[in-house]
Write a structure and sequence with these properties.
With 202 residues, this protein is α+β, with helices and mostly antiparallel strands. 38% of the residues lie in helices and 21% in strands.
Length: 202
């Protein structure tokens, strides 16, 4: 009887709701805490897989994730550069760069050898038009392989429509034009900071 009377009081409902909220919040925090290591490991595995895709096998024998340097990029935003070493000698650099595409930012990962020659390019993120602009994905088209072996002074950095040497896509010229520009900017960034990236004394 006393319980029935208590339930009729306004305070009972408030306390019940607060208790349920606290218990739910605690459960969510516990679940988040328990899954953090797995999420972090999955992110690290994805990053490792991406780094391997833009560097030829055997170019580096160190753990790239453990050998990094942060350098101010365009707009003062820090760029994390993953450094490859072969028998302890600096041999490669991998880093991200981004630019605005047709429908949003296009984020690329570029791998270079010590001399600044492109070893591989992968598009990590984009919002380009499916069936047109998404040909920048290696899973949809081999187009990004055209950058391999290119360097600042050894390529005409533009799409063919602009007098460059890289193919454009029918109906989606903006997307490949942006990727070409982004790769070139990445090479310029590397050229400007090579000494710092390599850890050499100026």
């Amino acid at each position: 009887m006393e319980l029935a009377i208590l339930r009729d009081k306004i305070g009972y409902h408030g306390v019940s709701l607060a208790l349920a909220t606290v218990l739910t919040g605690a459960a969510l925090m516990l679940a988040n805490h328990l899954t953090l290591p797995a999420i972090a490991q999955a992110a690290e595995d994805d990053l490792k897989a991406s780094l391997v895709q833009v560097l030829p096998e055997g170019m580096a024998d160190n753990n790239l994730l453990a050998d990094t340097v942060s350098i101010d990029g365009l707009g003062g935003k820090p760029v994390t550069v993953y450094r490859g070493r072969k028998a302890g000698v600096y041999s490669a650099a991998v880093f991200q760069h981004r630019a605005r595409g047709y429908a949003g930012d296009i984020v690329i990962l570029v791998g270079l050898n010590a001399e600044g020659v492109v070893q591989g390019v992968r598009v990590l993120k984009h919002a380009e038009t499916p069936g047109l602009g998404d040909k920048i994905e290696v899973a949809k088209s081999p187009w990004v392989h055209a950058f391999e072996g290119k360097a600042l002074g050894t390529a005409r950095w533009g799409v063919k429509k602009d007098g460059g040497e890289f193919d454009q896509f029918a109906g989606a010229t903006i997307t490949p034009r942006t990727v070409v520009k982004t790769v070139k900017e990445a090479l310029e960034f590397y050229a400007a900071h090579r000494t710092e990236i390599a850890g050499e004394k100026p």
